[in-house]
UniProtKB/TrEMBL annotation:
It comes from Myxococcus xanthus (strain DK1622). It holds the Pfam family Epimerase. Residues 12-220 form the NAD-dependent epimerase/dehydratase domain. This is NAD dependent epimerase/dehydratase family protein. InterPro entries: Epimerase_deHydtase, NAD(P)-bd_dom_sf, NAD(P)-dependent_oxidoreduct.
Length: 329
């Protein structure tokens, strides 16, 4: 879906070859500029470089008015996490400096996990909520995103850069060529769901997030935070609904939190074949509560039916598997 034409706002997108980035380029249309390491197919305007080294490409980005920093490393593990943590923090700070140099505004795409993770299923975080660092700070990815938000806001204030943070939950939908965001759906399709923990999941459609970000790029006034909430379900309900749209019966046993936590602790010392990383196991016992106070009205954010998102995700994954595209999960 492309955004209706209005005043042109040249918008540079990092992570342009990723799941969200490619959807965002399509939605922005002629207003998009992709920051890429390798050339992308198609007519989109492109700048060669990386988020970590804007000095190498700033001269090619003159006229850009908005930077959307959607690039990030996602690795739910404590193994070899240092590179991910440094990239997520340092690239965000570099993009603040790039925005200053270009006299542009910055959208930092973060994650619902910075604020929306709880031990109980009845709590929800909105744009005013405090960080959930006491719970998610033990997981390197979410800690890196909290630190990236905090340090980027501080630097943006010092430099006088207008910046907002946008937090989506898990992104689903067609086109996840790297198989990172749609792993839980692929587990059902590939018969690799060993059991079902007691936690929950929050997710939304990547196409709807791309539309909201494109609307945001054209707004004259920004709030400092936007949540792009979607659907929150217990994991059992989620996996069963994936099974429904896929025509697969999901009959995996439920496992109590105490047992999952025990497996996670064991897995930290002894590799457990066919089980997710200990961090993923720990996350699967938590609940994700997430809502927005203003994104529906201000960003025209209207998430489609979660069943439609799941159906489209399943259909795309099956087509990709038929083409023998490598997918995680």
């Amino acid at each position: 879906m492309r955004l209706a034409r209005g005043a042109a706002v040249k918008t540079l997108v990092t992570g342009a070859s990723g799941f969200l980035g490619r959807n965002l380029l399509e939605t922005l249309g002629d207003d998009a500029v992709a920051l890429v390491r390798s050339p992308l197919p198609g007519p989109v305007a492109q700048v060669s470089g990386t988020p970590l080294d804007p000095d190498a490409w700033l001269s090619q980005a003159q006229g850009v008015k908005v930077l959307i920093h959607s690039a990030g490393m996602v690795h739910h593990s404590r193994q070899h996490a240092d590179e991910m943590v440094r990239f997520n923090i340092d690239s965000s700070l570099a993009m603040v400096r790039a925005a200053k140099a270009l006299d542009a505004r910055l959208v930092l795409v973060s994650t619902s996990g910075t604020v929306g993770c709880f031990s109980h299923p009845t709590i929800e975080a909105d744009e005013h909520s405090l960080y959930a660092e006491a719970l998610v700070g033990r997981w390197p990815y979410y800690l890196s995103k909290i630190l990236a938000e905090q340090q980027s806001r501080k630097l943006a204030k010092q430099l006088g850069v207008e910046m907002t943070v946008v937090r989506p939950p898990v992104l689903l939908g067609p086109g996840d060529t790297l198989g990172r965001s749609t792993t839980n759906v692929a587990r059902v399709l590939n018969g690799r769901l060993p059991f079902i923990p007691t936690g929950g999941i929050a997710f939304t459609d990547v196409r709807d997030v791309a539309h909201a970000l494109a609307v945001l790029a054209k707004k004259s006034d920004w709030r400092d935070t936007y949540h792009l909430s979607g659907t929150t379900l217990p994991l059992r309900t989620f996996f069963e609904r994936v099974g429904e749209v896929a025509g697969i019966r999901v009959n995996r046993p439920g496992v109590p939190t105490l047992v999952v936590d025990g497996l996670a602790k064991l897995g930290a010392h002894v590799p457990l074949k066919k089980l997710p990383d200990p961090v993923v196991l720990e996350m699967s016992t938590c609940h994700w509560g997430f809502k927005t106070l203003w994104s529906h009205e201000e960003l025209d954010y209207r998430p489609r039916s979660h069943r439609q998102t799941l159906s489209d995700t399943v259909a795309w994954l099956r087509e990709a598997q038929a083409r023998q595209t490598p997918l995680a999960g």
